[in-house]
């Protein structure tokens, strides 16, 4: 069975976002009094009292800059919650944030969108990823929240062999 790995926002990117986000704004830390914010740095929900920030993030743009792809009009940025300070990253390898409807948006190695699939909590997320990566053109999948369209995490094509 293939294992699909949820990729959080990388540590080097988090460092940059804590200085200025992808919209050029400085980070504004807040104390999360209630908890429950989906943190993209460690792929868990925030706990009450944690210091977090809402920053603008352009995941496809940053991926394209590393790979030489050109996402063209598919380049977008949106809000994500992160810890205001360094955190250790995800614990474990379970796919996070699967208890609600999610959109799996598929992209080619060139940065072009190849479609999407609505996944319900009753469905198997690994099966949905297997279906997405059955298309040899799919290089990566972005998992997004349906209610706000926010980026949650990325899953890349599993290594062959």
Structure in words:
The chain has 161 residues and is of the alpha+beta class. It contains three helices and nine strands, in the order H-E-E-E-E-H-E-E-E-H-E-E. A four-stranded antiparallel sheet has the order 7-6-8-9, with helices on one face. A three-stranded antiparallel sheet has the order 1-4-5, with helices on one face. Strand 2 and strand 3 form a beta hairpin. The longest helix has 9 residues. The protein is globular, with a radius of gyration of 15 Å. The two termini are 13 Å apart. The mean pLDDT is 94.
> Tally the helices: what do you get?
3
The computed structural class is: alpha+beta
Distance between the termini: 13 Å
β-strand percent reads 25-35%
Mean pLDDT: 94
Biggest sheet features: 4 strands, antiparallel
What topology, given as strand order, has the largest sheet?
7-6-8-9
Low-confidence runs = none
Strands, total number: 9
Order of helices and strands: HEEEEHEEEHEE
**Helix fraction bin:** 10-25%
Report the radius of gyration as a whole number of Å. 15 Å
Query: What sort of overall outline do the alpha carbons produce when their principal axes are compared?
Result: globular
Q: What descriptors fit this protein?
A:
single chain, 161 residues, alpha+beta, 4-stranded antiparallel beta sheet, 3-stranded antiparallel beta sheet, 9 strands
């Amino acid at each position: 069975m293939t294992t699909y790995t949820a990729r959080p926002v990388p540590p080097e990117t988090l460092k940059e976002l804590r200085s200025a986000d992808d919209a050029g704004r400085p980070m504004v830390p807040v104390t999360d009094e209630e908890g429950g914010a989906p943190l993209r740095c460690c792929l868990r929900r925030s706990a009450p009292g944690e210091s977090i920030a809402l920053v603008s993030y352009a995941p496809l743009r940053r991926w394209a800059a590393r790979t030489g792809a050109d996402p063209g009009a598919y380049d977008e940025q949106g809000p994500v919650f992160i810890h205001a300070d360094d955190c250790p990253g995800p614990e474990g390898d379970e796919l996070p944030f699967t208890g609600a409807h999610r959109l799996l948006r598929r992209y080619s190695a060139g940065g072009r969108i190849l479609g999407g699939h609505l996944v319900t909590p009753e469905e198997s997320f690994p099966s949905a990823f297997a279906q997405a990566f059955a298309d040899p053109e799919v290089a990566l999948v972005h998992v997004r929240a349906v209610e706000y369209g926010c980026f949650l995490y990325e899953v890349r094509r599993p290594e062959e062999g």
